[in-house]
Write a structure and sequence with these properties.
heterodimer; A: 110 residues; mainly beta; five-stranded mixed sheet; four-stranded antiparallel sheet; B: seven-stranded mixed sheet; 54% strand
């Protein structure tokens, strides 16, 4: 069973920041939060992951609340190519066993 | 790096036929995963290997499905006999177990069983 809850869909204007929320209220102390996305007809693509500190890379930022029960993925300047399904997954890092939920369909509008 | 390579990209077959899907993981990766994606069930983990050994096959739907990894650079997923409900996109992914390395996915094989 997926251990995360995400909105089914979201819209974002091109050039604006996209903030995608994720609830993981039953996360365990040794579980990381991972984000992947899947653009139509392609395999899922890794975006970012974190344990409890905020993380940033060239693609996105990940903000994890202090109690670790929720997180937000931020795409700072969304483009049309960011239209995809975004998956938030919690996982014990050593296993690499990703269990996907239903994700959030982000539609970036021109 | 060429990434994870899957073949064929598309496969159309008739019910009852044997289907073999192939995957070449990224060189140096020692863990390999097979996923299936359908509209109804989303992305499902079927089986994964560490160092060519199957670790967890609890997601394999039935005995008609089998997977092998004869060496570090090749894996197959076989369906025999195939059924229309097996129609899906099958993804292979690989990673370096034990390192801070994410899963890298191939572009999948779209299987249609008529």
């Amino acid at each position: 069973d997926a251990k995360t809850t995400q909105p089914t869909s979201m819209d974002c204007a091109e050039g604006r920041a996209a903030n995608l929320p994720c609830n993981h209220s039953t996360i365990s102390g040794n579980e990381y939060v991972y984000w992947y996305r899947q653009i139509h007809s392609q395999g899922p693509q890794y975006i970012i992951h974190g344990l409890k500190n905020n993380e940033t890379n060239e693609m996105a930022s990940l903000i994890i609340t202090e109690d670790r029960k929720s997180s937000t993925l931020i795409l700072p300047h969304a483009t049309l190519r960011d239209t995809a399904v975004y998956y938030c997954i919690v996982m014990v890092r050593a296993t690499n066993k990703l269990i996907f939920g239903t994700g959030t369909l982000l539609a970036v509008q021109p | 790096d060429a990434g994870v390579i899957q073949s064929p990209r598309h496969e159309v077959t008739e019910m009852g036929q044997e289907v073999t899907l192939r995957c070449k993981p990224i060189s140096g990766h020692n863990s390999l995963f097979w996923y299936r994606q359908t509209m109804m069930r989303g992305l499902e983990l079927l089986i994964y290997f560490n160092n060519n050994v199957p670790i967890d096959d609890s997601g394999m739907p039935e005995d008609r499905f089998s997977a092998k990894m004869p060496n570090a650079s090749f894996s197959t997923l076989k369906i025999q006999p195939s059924e229309p409900r097996d129609s899906a996109v099958y993804f292979c992914a690989s990673t370096q177990q034990g390192m801070d390395s994410p899963l890298h996915f191939g572009n999948g094989t779209r299987l249609t069983v008529t």
